[in-house]
C-alpha cells in the first residue's frame, strides 16, 4: 500500500513538472538552475548513480551500472504522455546514433507494459531501447521532479550534471555539456 501511495505521489510530481514547462529551451543554458527546477543543475555532482532496478526492452531487470559498464552514461527520464519528452526523443536518438559520446538511454516513467513503450518508440521511429521504470523508483531515487530530466554520469558512476526540461541533444551547447563526460 505504501509503495502504491509513493508511486502516486511521484506520478503527480512528475506530471506537474512536465506541465509547467511552458517555456522550454531548445539549447541547455550554461547558467545553473535552482535544484529541482528546470535547467542545468550541478548541485548533485559527485553522487553515485542509484542502485535501482529498471527493466530493459525485454522486461528483464537491470541496473544503470550494468548498462554503463564503466563508461559515461546519459540517462533520460521521459514518458509517453509528456509532450516535451516526446519532442526531445529524436534528438536523443540522433545523439546515440552519432557515437563518440556517452552511452544514451531513455527510461520511460510510464506505468504501462514494456510492449506498449516499445510500440510507442517504434511508432515515433526512435531506435532507443525501451527501458522502463514503471514504479518510478529511479525518478524518486534521483529526486527528479520534472520530465524530461537527463542526468550525465561519468565512467566512475558519479553524477556530473543533470538537466531538467527539453533539450536539443544535437545542438552546440548540448555538445559542450556532453564533453564533460569522463
From TrEMBL:
<dbReference type="InterPro" id="IPR013740">
    <property type="entry name" value="Redoxin"/>
</dbReference>
<dbReference type="InterPro" id="IPR036249">
    <property type="entry name" value="Thioredoxin-like_sf"/>
</dbReference>
<dbReference type="InterPro" id="IPR050553">
    <property type="entry name" value="Thioredoxin_ResA/DsbE_sf"/>
</dbReference>
<feature type="signal peptide">
    <location>
        <begin position="1"/>
        <end position="22"/>
    </location>
</feature>
<keyword id="KW-0676">Redox-active center</keyword>
<dbReference type="Pfam" id="PF08534">
    <property type="entry name" value="Redoxin"/>
</dbReference>
<feature type="domain" description="Thioredoxin">
    <location>
        <begin position="43"/>
        <end position="182"/>
    </location>
</feature>
<keyword id="KW-0732">Signal</keyword>
<dbReference type="InterPro" id="IPR017937">
    <property type="entry name" value="Thioredoxin_CS"/>
</dbReference>
<dbReference type="InterPro" id="IPR013766">
    <property type="entry name" value="Thioredoxin_domain"/>
</dbReference>
<protein>
    <submittedName>
        <fullName>TlpA disulfide reductase family protein</fullName>
    </submittedName>
</protein>
<feature type="region of interest" description="Disordered">
    <location>
        <begin position="22"/>
        <end position="51"/>
    </location>
</feature>
<keyword id="KW-0201">Cytochrome c-type biogenesis</keyword>
